Amino acid sequence: MRIDVVVVYVPRYRVGHEKHFVPPITGIHLAALTPPGHDVRVVHQQIEPVDLETDAKLIALSFFSGFATEAYRLADEFRARGKLVVAGGPHASYWPDEVLEHCDAVAVGEAEPFWPNLVTDASRGRLKKIYRSAPPSLERIPTPRYDLLPSSFFVPRVVQATRGCPFSCSFCTVPSLNPGFRTRPVADVLADIDYDDFPHWWQRRVVWFWDDNLTAKRSYIERLLREMIPRKRWWLTQASMDVVRDRELLDLMEASGCIGIFFGIETFGAKSLRDANKLQNRISRYRECVDRLHERGISVMAGFVCGFDNDDAESIVAMADQLQKIEVDVPFLSVLTPYKGTPLYTQLEDSGRLLRDRGWEHYNGYNVTFQPNRLGSAELVDAHRELWRRAFAPARVGERIVRASKTLRRGAFLMSACMNGFYGFKRLRRNEPIDMRALAGRPLREAPSVLDDRTDRGGHYGAGRPRVASQR
Length: 472
Ligand code: B12
Ligand code: SF4
Fold this sequence. Notes:
Elements: E1 2-7, H1 26-33, E2 39-44, E3 58-62, H2 68-80, E4 84-88, H3 90-94, H4 96-100, E5 105-108, H5 115-123, E6 130-132, E7 158-159, E8 162-164, H6 174-177, E9 181-183, H7 186-194, H8 201-205, E10 206-209, H9 218-228, E11 234-238, H10 247-255, E12 258-266, H11 270-275, H12 286-294, E13 299-306, H13 313-325, E14 330-335, H14 343-350, H15 377-391, H16 394-407, H17 410-428
Parallel strand pairs: 1-2, 1-3, 3-4, 4-5, 5-6, 7-10, 10-11, 11-12, 12-13, 13-14
Antiparallel strand pairs: 8-9
Bound molecules: cobalamin (B12) and iron/sulfur cluster.
Residues 24-26, 29, 60-62, 64-66, 86-91, 107, 110-112, 115, 160, 172-174, 177-178, 210, 212, 334, 339, 364-365 line the site of cobalamin.
């Protein structure tokens, strides 16, 4: 049977991405899990058009909440053409009933235990409506099908070594989506790291861990990193800030080729940090944490969130200076978004603060879907955009690149310069995050005042239908 795994995507910037940096791992992971005897293709809508006239029998859609509207449009189109459609991923796991209005089957949670059966059921025309399982052990997970990735991804070797995170931040679905903290056997992870069939030297060198919190379990990460030392890779991951307290681990990270750590710093407000339940962060120690990594030449990527109850426009815009002052190398700036499965979602729903007229496209991390406390929803979008413009203003980008050239090791400098260049270039050509308010329920491709023609270059960014309030 032919299967198309479609990783759904809708541009989040006015003119899309100029370069495609790192791929999702989900599509190539599902492809690797597919039992032999089936012909599987992976389509990244971020890069290539989705072929509605495909000869595949089974279409497997994977998507985040922000892309759900587009996923449903694709599902409807495929089903109208007689295809079997199954959907999974973080959105489908929390909204299975809604998914079943558009798809033949829905996958709830992690798919390793049931994906082979699901494929067999589909090939025999006996697809069940719901597939779900308890969080599985991560033993015997095969190497992702890197060979199926389009060549345009800059850093193609994405790896997952662990799932889950011991913390429970109020806005994060990880504790309920991937419960516990589970690790893959080190030998399996090394097999992914040893995969080398990439055309460019940096692609063979860089390993990007798409883990929730790779360093959470010291005995595991130490074993993995010791094995990585002779392999001379450059690696990056997400970790919690408490990692800097362990100097031995930092030494091991340096020795094994760590070039970048992503921290969820989130905010400079003490009350906001409490609201986020981010107990592992200490505002007074932000600078020190960054310094500890810089001493080892490792770059610090950091996420910041706008829209906590204590935030106002001034405090949001002020983050552009604050993050520069603590010497973050690459900032990632989001709007607080209540995803189902989080304490934040429950709290805003219970207090009637969810904006019911906002379609899923507003849940893309750059738009507002709830009534903020100290400013209007429109003001929150505006404040985020002002922060984005200031943080990626040429002078600040330039300052970060020059500083990185003096403090970071070679791989870290190159990666940090590329990422700053990526966002700095967007800022220069005003390729800002799309303000979904301007779409006012219209399909994406009918909004030329919001989206420049180039967004639709590939003709593959489908129209979104506004979700009706009753769906929630
Ligand atoms: C790596 C990652 C990223 C990476 C890569 C993104 C990407 N496109 O893959 C980066 C850093 C770019 C990123 C960005 C964002 N992310 Co992110 N990310 C993750 C993270 C940490 C791991 C995801 C992953 O790769 N897991 C490994 C793979 C193998 O697992 P998986 O995708 O979950 O798939 C498994 C199952 O879900 C299932 N499955 C998935 N799809 C399908 C399809 C079918 C048909 C079937 C049967 C099964 C199935 O089977 C798989 C195997 O078990 C998750 C947290 C998490 N634990 O899920 C957040 C997470 C997915 N991200 C999230 C968000 C919100 C974002 C952003 C919007 C953040 C922002 N403010 O900008 C952006 C969106 C960017 C974009 N272009 O899509 C949310 C999504 C919540 C939601 N309900 O949508 C999560 C869950 C974290 C959170 N805050 O709760 N992210
Ligand atoms: S530390 Fe990161 S992954 Fe863990 S719960 Fe908090 S936001 Fe989620």
